[in-house]
Amino acid sequence: MDATPTQVWIIIGVLGVFTYLIRLSFMGLVGDRPLPEWLLRMLRYTPVAVLPAVVAPMLIGSGAHSGDPLRIGAALATLVVGLTTRNVLWAIATGFGIFFGVGALLG
Question: Which residues fall within 8 angstroms of residue 59, CB to CB, at 6 or more apart?
């Protein structure tokens, strides 16, 4: 299905409005009250869930680069560094470094 530029902008606008409303529900309507402990516990895991959700399609997707050894190697190195150091920034830096460094060496 091909979408016209107008349809794409309408979709972007609608998604923007709904994203704003979702954020308003937390910050505007509940912002002056403390959140329940169960909700805070769940929100603590949001960054942990977002990173794999962003990376997984690049690793196991159906695109041309799916299953690329360089991508898999960088992901495994990122996982190992993340598990051993418990530092997200070091893990991400390792993944980027291996992916772009080895990618530049291999061409």
Answer: 66, 67, 71, 72, 75
Domains held by the chain: number: 2
Tokens at 74, concatenated: 């960088």
Q: Which of 68, 79, 83, 78 is nearest to 98 (CA)?
A: 78
Examine the domain organization and report whether 69 and 94 are in the same domain. yes
Q: How many CB atoms lie within 10 A of CB 35?
A: 13
Q: What's the whole-model pTM score? A: 0.55
* Closest CA relative to residue 55, chosen from 43, 65, 41: 65
The DSSP symbol for 2 reads P
Compute and round to an integer the Cα radius of gyration of the chain.
19
In tens, the pLDDT along 93-102 reads 999 999 999 9
